[in-house]
Amino acid sequence: MLIRKTFLAVGAVALALTGCSQGSADLTSANQQTGAGSDAAAEAASPFYVDPNSNPAVWVRKNPRDARAAAIKKSIAAKPGAKWFGNWSGDIGKSVSAYVTAAQKARKTPILVAYNITDRDCSGHSGGGAGSPAKYRAWISKFAKAIGNRPAVVIIEPDAVAQLDCLPAGSRKTRTALLAYATKQFQSNAKKTRAYLDGGNSNWIAPATMAARLNAAGVKNVRGFSINVSNFFTTAQSAAYGKKVNAALKGKYRYTKRFVIDTSRNGKGGVPGRWCNPAGRKLGVTSRAGGSSGAEYLLWIKVPGDSDGPCGVGPGIPAGTFSPVLAMRLIKGS
Protein backbone atom coordinates (compact mmCIF):
# COMPACT_ATOMS: atom_id res chain seq x y z
CA MET A 1 0.00 0.00 0.00
CA LEU A 2 2.85 2.34 0.73
CA ILE A 3 5.89 3.34 -1.24
CA ARG A 4 9.22 2.28 0.20
CA LYS A 5 12.62 3.70 -0.73
CA THR A 6 16.12 2.81 0.50
CA PHE A 7 18.58 5.37 1.82
CA LEU A 8 20.69 3.72 4.59
CA ALA A 9 21.18 1.01 6.35
CA VAL A 10 13.04 1.78 26.22
CA GLY A 11 11.73 3.47 28.07
CA ALA A 12 10.80 1.12 30.98
CA VAL A 13 8.19 3.18 32.77
CA ALA A 14 4.79 1.52 32.54
CA LEU A 15 2.01 3.75 31.27
CA ALA A 16 -1.17 1.85 31.97
CA LEU A 17 -3.74 1.83 29.24
CA THR A 18 -6.47 0.09 31.15
CA GLY A 19 -9.70 -1.25 29.75
CA CYS A 20 -12.78 0.84 30.27
CA SER A 21 -16.06 -0.32 31.74
CA GLN A 22 -17.15 -1.99 28.48
CA GLY A 23 -14.20 -4.33 28.78
CA SER A 24 -11.48 -3.46 26.25
CA ALA A 25 -8.29 -5.46 26.71
CA ASP A 26 -5.65 -4.18 29.14
CA LEU A 27 -2.42 -3.76 27.17
CA THR A 28 -0.26 -3.50 30.26
CA SER A 29 -1.45 -6.92 31.43
CA ALA A 30 -0.93 -8.28 27.93
CA ASN A 31 2.69 -7.18 28.00
CA GLN A 32 3.21 -9.04 31.24
CA GLN A 33 1.44 -12.16 30.02
CA THR A 34 2.90 -12.54 26.54
CA GLY A 35 6.48 -11.49 27.03
CA ALA A 36 7.68 -15.10 26.79
CA GLY A 37 6.46 -18.58 26.00
CA SER A 38 5.29 -20.38 22.90
CA ASP A 39 4.11 -18.67 19.76
CA ALA A 40 0.67 -20.23 20.21
CA ALA A 41 0.40 -18.90 23.76
CA ALA A 42 1.44 -15.42 22.71
CA GLU A 43 -1.10 -15.40 19.89
CA ALA A 44 -3.87 -16.67 22.17
CA ALA A 45 -3.14 -13.96 24.73
CA SER A 46 -3.13 -11.14 22.18
CA PRO A 47 -5.32 -8.26 23.39
CA PHE A 48 -5.91 -6.90 19.91
CA TYR A 49 -9.09 -6.78 17.85
CA VAL A 50 -9.70 -8.86 14.73
CA ASP A 51 -11.38 -6.73 12.06
CA PRO A 52 -14.33 -8.78 10.77
CA ASN A 53 -14.56 -6.53 7.72
CA SER A 54 -10.92 -6.46 6.68
CA ASN A 55 -10.25 -6.95 2.98
CA PRO A 56 -9.17 -10.59 3.50
CA ALA A 57 -12.25 -11.33 5.65
CA VAL A 58 -14.60 -9.83 3.07
CA TRP A 59 -12.94 -11.83 0.29
CA VAL A 60 -13.30 -15.07 2.27
CA ARG A 61 -17.02 -14.43 2.84
CA LYS A 62 -17.57 -13.70 -0.83
CA ASN A 63 -15.59 -16.71 -2.05
CA PRO A 64 -16.41 -19.59 0.32
CA ARG A 65 -15.93 -22.25 -2.35
CA ASP A 66 -12.53 -21.01 -3.47
CA ALA A 67 -9.84 -23.57 -2.61
CA ARG A 68 -7.75 -20.81 -1.04
CA ALA A 69 -10.46 -19.48 1.27
CA ALA A 70 -9.80 -21.78 4.23
CA ALA A 71 -6.08 -21.02 4.32
CA ILE A 72 -6.61 -17.27 3.98
CA LYS A 73 -9.24 -17.29 6.71
CA LYS A 74 -7.08 -19.27 9.12
CA SER A 75 -3.74 -17.58 8.43
CA ILE A 76 -4.78 -13.98 7.76
CA ALA A 77 -8.45 -13.02 8.17
CA ALA A 78 -8.74 -14.51 11.67
CA LYS A 79 -5.67 -12.66 12.98
CA PRO A 80 -5.70 -9.31 14.81
CA GLY A 81 -4.33 -6.39 12.84
CA ALA A 82 -4.79 -2.75 11.92
CA LYS A 83 -7.57 -0.99 10.09
CA TRP A 84 -6.48 1.91 7.87
CA PHE A 85 -8.43 5.16 7.74
CA GLY A 86 -8.05 7.83 5.05
CA ASN A 87 -9.96 9.88 2.52
CA TRP A 88 -11.93 6.72 1.59
CA SER A 89 -13.39 6.42 5.10
CA GLY A 90 -16.30 8.83 4.73
CA ASP A 91 -17.24 10.68 7.91
CA ILE A 92 -14.05 10.03 9.86
CA GLY A 93 -15.60 10.65 13.26
CA LYS A 94 -18.39 8.15 12.67
CA SER A 95 -16.08 5.60 11.06
CA VAL A 96 -13.50 5.66 13.84
CA SER A 97 -16.09 5.67 16.61
CA ALA A 98 -17.93 2.70 15.11
CA TYR A 99 -14.74 0.69 14.84
CA VAL A 100 -13.60 1.44 18.38
CA THR A 101 -17.07 0.62 19.69
CA ALA A 102 -17.03 -2.76 17.92
CA ALA A 103 -13.67 -3.54 19.49
CA GLN A 104 -15.00 -2.56 22.92
CA LYS A 105 -17.92 -4.94 22.54
CA ALA A 106 -15.45 -7.72 21.69
CA ARG A 107 -13.39 -6.82 24.78
CA LYS A 108 -10.36 -6.16 22.61
CA THR A 109 -8.15 -3.18 21.77
CA PRO A 110 -8.34 -1.83 18.21
CA ILE A 111 -5.31 -0.93 16.10
CA LEU A 112 -5.98 2.01 13.79
CA VAL A 113 -3.84 3.73 11.16
CA ALA A 114 -4.32 7.40 10.35
CA TYR A 115 -3.27 7.77 6.71
CA ASN A 116 -4.52 11.02 5.23
CA ILE A 117 -1.65 13.53 5.44
CA THR A 118 -1.69 16.24 2.77
CA ASP A 119 0.47 15.22 -0.24
CA ARG A 120 0.44 11.62 0.97
CA ASP A 121 3.02 9.21 -0.51
CA CYS A 122 4.66 11.90 -2.68
CA SER A 123 2.38 11.09 -5.62
CA GLY A 124 3.30 7.39 -5.40
CA HIS A 125 0.99 4.38 -5.60
CA SER A 126 -0.88 5.56 -2.48
CA GLY A 127 -0.92 9.25 -3.35
CA GLY A 128 -3.73 11.50 -2.16
CA GLY A 129 -4.64 12.62 1.32
CA ALA A 130 -6.39 15.67 2.69
CA GLY A 131 -6.71 18.45 0.15
CA SER A 132 -5.20 21.14 2.34
CA PRO A 133 -3.50 21.60 5.72
CA ALA A 134 -6.74 22.99 7.15
CA LYS A 135 -8.68 19.95 5.97
CA TYR A 136 -6.09 17.63 7.49
CA ARG A 137 -6.19 19.39 10.85
CA ALA A 138 -9.97 19.06 10.91
CA TRP A 139 -9.77 15.39 9.88
CA ILE A 140 -7.18 14.30 12.44
CA SER A 141 -8.90 16.24 15.21
CA LYS A 142 -12.16 14.39 14.51
CA PHE A 143 -10.21 11.11 14.41
CA ALA A 144 -8.75 11.60 17.89
CA LYS A 145 -11.97 12.92 19.40
CA ALA A 146 -13.89 9.92 18.03
CA ILE A 147 -11.69 7.60 20.09
CA GLY A 148 -12.10 9.77 23.15
CA ASN A 149 -11.45 8.17 26.51
CA ARG A 150 -11.32 4.63 25.15
CA PRO A 151 -8.25 2.38 24.76
CA ALA A 152 -6.75 2.12 21.29
CA VAL A 153 -3.45 1.85 19.44
CA VAL A 154 -2.94 4.35 16.63
CA ILE A 155 -0.19 4.52 14.01
CA ILE A 156 0.17 8.10 12.83
CA GLU A 157 0.81 8.64 9.13
CA PRO A 158 3.08 5.91 7.75
CA ASP A 159 5.93 7.31 5.61
CA ALA A 160 5.09 10.94 6.36
CA VAL A 161 8.27 11.62 8.34
CA ALA A 162 10.59 9.51 6.22
CA GLN A 163 9.31 11.04 2.98
CA LEU A 164 10.05 14.63 3.92
CA ASP A 165 12.88 14.63 1.37
CA CYS A 166 10.44 14.42 -1.53
CA LEU A 167 8.78 17.71 -0.57
CA PRO A 168 9.88 21.29 -1.25
CA ALA A 169 11.37 23.08 1.77
CA GLY A 170 8.19 24.99 2.57
CA SER A 171 6.05 21.88 2.34
CA ARG A 172 8.42 20.05 4.68
CA LYS A 173 7.78 22.64 7.36
CA THR A 174 4.05 22.40 6.77
CA ARG A 175 4.07 18.61 7.04
CA THR A 176 6.16 18.64 10.20
CA ALA A 177 3.75 21.14 11.74
CA LEU A 178 0.75 19.00 10.72
CA LEU A 179 2.28 15.91 12.32
CA ALA A 180 3.02 17.82 15.51
CA TYR A 181 -0.60 18.99 15.49
CA ALA A 182 -1.73 15.38 15.08
CA THR A 183 0.30 14.21 18.07
CA LYS A 184 -1.21 16.95 20.21
CA GLN A 185 -4.71 15.90 19.20
CA PHE A 186 -4.15 12.40 20.54
CA GLN A 187 -2.38 13.75 23.60
CA SER A 188 -5.32 16.02 24.44
CA ASN A 189 -8.38 14.20 23.10
CA ALA A 190 -7.56 10.48 23.28
CA LYS A 191 -5.74 10.07 26.56
CA LYS A 192 -6.02 6.26 26.69
CA THR A 193 -4.67 5.88 23.18
CA ARG A 194 -1.17 4.63 22.64
CA ALA A 195 -0.18 6.58 19.55
CA TYR A 196 2.99 5.97 17.56
CA LEU A 197 4.37 8.41 15.00
CA ASP A 198 5.77 6.52 12.04
CA GLY A 199 9.55 6.32 11.80
CA GLY A 200 10.18 4.59 8.46
CA ASN A 201 12.24 1.41 8.32
CA SER A 202 15.72 0.18 9.12
CA ASN A 203 17.04 0.71 5.58
CA TRP A 204 15.75 4.16 4.79
CA ILE A 205 16.68 7.15 6.97
CA ALA A 206 19.77 7.34 9.20
CA PRO A 207 18.83 6.95 12.91
CA ALA A 208 20.12 10.38 13.96
CA THR A 209 18.23 12.07 11.12
CA MET A 210 15.07 10.16 11.96
CA ALA A 211 15.39 11.10 15.63
CA ALA A 212 15.62 14.79 14.74
CA ARG A 213 12.61 14.55 12.43
CA LEU A 214 10.52 12.65 14.96
CA ASN A 215 11.35 15.18 17.66
CA ALA A 216 10.36 18.07 15.41
CA ALA A 217 7.14 16.26 14.45
CA GLY A 218 6.04 15.84 18.06
CA VAL A 219 6.96 12.29 19.03
CA LYS A 220 7.47 13.50 22.59
CA ASN A 221 3.72 14.10 22.81
CA VAL A 222 2.76 10.47 22.15
CA ARG A 223 3.65 6.96 23.24
CA GLY A 224 6.41 6.45 20.69
CA PHE A 225 7.15 5.59 17.08
CA SER A 226 6.49 2.76 14.61
CA ILE A 227 9.00 0.94 12.41
CA ASN A 228 8.80 -1.22 9.27
CA VAL A 229 5.21 -0.36 8.37
CA SER A 230 4.35 -2.13 5.11
CA ASN A 231 7.92 -3.36 4.77
CA PHE A 232 9.66 -6.68 5.22
CA PHE A 233 12.78 -6.25 7.33
CA THR A 234 13.23 -8.63 10.23
CA THR A 235 12.16 -7.91 13.78
CA ALA A 236 15.81 -7.99 14.85
CA GLN A 237 16.83 -5.45 12.20
CA SER A 238 13.89 -3.22 13.06
CA ALA A 239 14.50 -3.38 16.80
CA ALA A 240 18.17 -2.54 16.31
CA TYR A 241 17.13 0.51 14.29
CA GLY A 242 14.61 1.54 16.95
CA LYS A 243 17.29 1.37 19.62
CA LYS A 244 19.60 3.53 17.51
CA VAL A 245 16.86 6.12 17.03
CA ASN A 246 16.31 6.11 20.78
CA ALA A 247 20.03 6.52 21.42
CA ALA A 248 19.97 9.59 19.17
CA LEU A 249 16.89 10.96 20.93
CA LYS A 250 18.56 10.41 24.29
CA GLY A 251 21.83 11.97 23.22
CA LYS A 252 20.38 15.14 21.75
CA TYR A 253 16.97 15.62 23.37
CA ARG A 254 17.33 13.74 26.67
CA TYR A 255 14.41 11.35 26.27
CA THR A 256 13.56 8.01 24.67
CA LYS A 257 10.33 6.53 23.37
CA ARG A 258 8.83 3.11 23.00
CA PHE A 259 8.43 1.68 19.53
CA VAL A 260 6.34 -0.92 17.71
CA ILE A 261 7.29 -3.04 14.71
CA ASP A 262 5.15 -4.12 11.78
CA THR A 263 5.68 -7.89 11.53
CA SER A 264 2.86 -8.64 9.11
CA ARG A 265 5.15 -9.65 6.24
CA ASN A 266 8.63 -9.97 7.75
CA GLY A 267 8.77 -13.74 8.26
CA LYS A 268 11.64 -14.07 5.79
CA GLY A 269 13.07 -10.57 6.08
CA GLY A 270 13.41 -8.05 3.29
CA VAL A 271 15.82 -6.87 0.60
CA PRO A 272 16.70 -3.16 0.43
CA GLY A 273 14.93 -1.51 -2.46
CA ARG A 274 12.40 -4.32 -2.96
CA TRP A 275 9.31 -2.98 -1.28
CA CYS A 276 6.53 -3.42 -3.83
CA ASN A 277 4.96 -6.90 -3.73
CA PRO A 278 8.30 -8.71 -3.81
CA ALA A 279 8.37 -12.48 -4.25
CA GLY A 280 9.58 -14.79 -1.51
CA ARG A 281 8.21 -12.89 1.49
CA LYS A 282 6.29 -14.53 4.33
CA LEU A 283 3.89 -13.73 7.15
CA GLY A 284 5.55 -12.74 10.43
CA VAL A 285 4.46 -13.30 14.02
CA THR A 286 0.96 -12.06 14.76
CA SER A 287 0.04 -9.01 16.86
CA ARG A 288 1.25 -9.33 20.45
CA ALA A 289 3.47 -7.84 23.12
CA GLY A 290 7.08 -7.37 22.08
CA GLY A 291 8.59 -9.59 24.74
CA SER A 292 12.38 -9.78 24.47
CA SER A 293 12.45 -8.16 21.00
CA GLY A 294 13.00 -4.66 22.38
CA ALA A 295 9.75 -3.40 20.86
CA GLU A 296 6.69 -2.63 22.93
CA TYR A 297 4.46 -4.48 20.46
CA LEU A 298 4.82 -6.56 17.34
CA LEU A 299 1.83 -5.69 15.18
CA TRP A 300 0.24 -6.58 11.89
CA ILE A 301 -0.07 -3.02 10.61
CA LYS A 302 -0.05 -3.70 6.89
CA VAL A 303 -2.94 -5.98 5.92
CA PRO A 304 -1.35 -9.12 4.44
CA GLY A 305 -2.58 -9.72 0.93
CA ASP A 306 -3.32 -6.05 0.26
CA SER A 307 -1.24 -4.89 -2.68
CA ASP A 308 1.57 -2.33 -2.45
CA GLY A 309 0.72 -1.19 -5.96
CA PRO A 310 0.62 -2.58 -9.52
CA CYS A 311 4.12 -4.00 -9.34
CA GLY A 312 6.28 -6.97 -8.33
CA VAL A 313 4.27 -10.20 -8.21
CA GLY A 314 1.08 -8.12 -8.17
CA PRO A 315 1.02 -6.52 -11.63
CA GLY A 316 -2.19 -4.66 -12.30
CA ILE A 317 -3.34 -4.79 -8.65
CA PRO A 318 -3.85 -1.26 -7.28
CA ALA A 319 -2.43 -0.28 -3.90
CA GLY A 320 -4.68 -1.36 -1.04
CA THR A 321 -6.58 -3.94 -3.09
CA PHE A 322 -6.69 -7.45 -1.66
CA SER A 323 -5.36 -10.28 -3.80
CA PRO A 324 -5.69 -13.97 -2.90
CA VAL A 325 -2.60 -14.60 -5.01
CA LEU A 326 -0.52 -12.22 -2.88
CA ALA A 327 -2.06 -13.64 0.29
CA MET A 328 -1.19 -17.22 -0.60
CA ARG A 329 2.36 -16.25 -1.47
CA LEU A 330 2.74 -14.78 2.03
CA ILE A 331 1.22 -17.86 3.62
CA LYS A 332 3.56 -20.18 1.68
CA GLY A 333 6.58 -17.86 1.68
CA SER A 334 6.83 -18.03 -2.10
From TrEMBL:
Its EC number is 3.2.1.-. PROSITE patterns: PROKAR_LIPOPROTEIN. Keywords: Carbohydrate metabolism, Cellulose degradation, Glycosidase, Hydrolase, Polysaccharide degradation, Signal. The keyword Signal applies. The keyword Hydrolase applies. Belongs to the glycosyl hydrolase family 6. This is Glucanase.
